[in-house]
Amino acid sequence: MGEVSPPDLPERYLALLKSHLIRGSYRVPDPFAGSLKAKVYRPVQQALARLGLQLVRPVDPVAQEQGLDYSSDADTMIGRRRLDNLQFCVTDVIRSGVPGDLLEAGVWRGGAAIFMRAILHAHGETDRVVWLADSFQGVPRPDSERYPADKDDPCWRMGALAVDAEAVRANFARYDLLDGRVRFIEGWFRDTLPSAPVDRLAVMRLDGDLYESTMDALRALYPKLSVGGYVIVDDYGNEVLGCRRAVDDYRAEHGIAAAIHTVDWTGVYWQREA
After folding, report:
1. Do 29 and 115 share a domain, yes or no?
2. Looking at residue 232, what is its pLDDT?
């Protein structure tokens, strides 16, 4: 194996990190509470646990690439294609000198935000902050009266989506990336984002699932996005969620005509033009 030249090291580091963030080959089922599947699954898992065993299923590696499947020990569920897109957007604002910080709204175990901090580290960027906005309690229960698009959305019942802030901090620390340039905004978006101490953004990544969460994030954060900066929306292609309708409504209300680019089956992004 030939010697790695110094200019290659950042790219090698980021490529290795991506593989580790989506690592794993098995997943523990996490059925919705109250569903028939959950009623069958729980006693089987409990019986196996008494024998020191656990029920798992293999992860589909093709689906894992696109974020359609993920392992139980992964730090992100967004897949390699969306990580590649995140790297493109962050690298482009660095090289183009677009001012502002990086923010993810809806962080789960922190994998995508960890990757953003790693990109800054790889490029020697010392002035930008990575913000993590999340309830750290999972997805809010839908308010279908105010937001009809969220009616019957099941995400609030998914216990696996609730990851507390200390667990996310511990994940950052495992990669030696927890420092003063990683800052947390804890609470429901409607309560925290309007007054969040974020002055300017270069990249904002939205992964709030619901119409309500997506709209709350856009209203509070998009006015802070620099021209030339990027909006990345994780759930736009998922027809089960109200996210797409929120994005379309916000863009229509504010006359945003920038082209929306597809990343994979659900992820999209656009670059702010004005």
Report:
1. no
2. 98
Lookup result for tokens 């856009």: 218
Mean pLDDT for 109-113 is 97
What pLDDT is attached to residue 37?
59
What number of helices (H) and strands (E) belong to the chain?
A: 9, 9
3-state secondary structure of 184: strand
70 Cβ neighbours under 8 A, 6+ residues apart: 22, 24, 27, 59, 64, 76, 77, 79
Kindly state whether residues 149 and 41 are assigned to the same domain. no
* Same domain? 173 vs 110: yes
Quote the pTM value.
0.89
| Parent domain of 131 | 79-271
Which H or E run contains 117? Answer: helix 111-122
Sign, CA torsion 70/72/77/83: negative
Using an 8 Å Cβ cutoff, are 94 and 121 in contact? no
Residue 92 half-sphere exposure, CB side, CA atoms within 13 Å?
16
pLDDT tens, position by position, 213-239? 999 999 999 999 999 999 999 999 987
- The alpha carbon of residue 214 and the mean position of all alpha carbons in its chain are separated, in whole angstroms, by 12
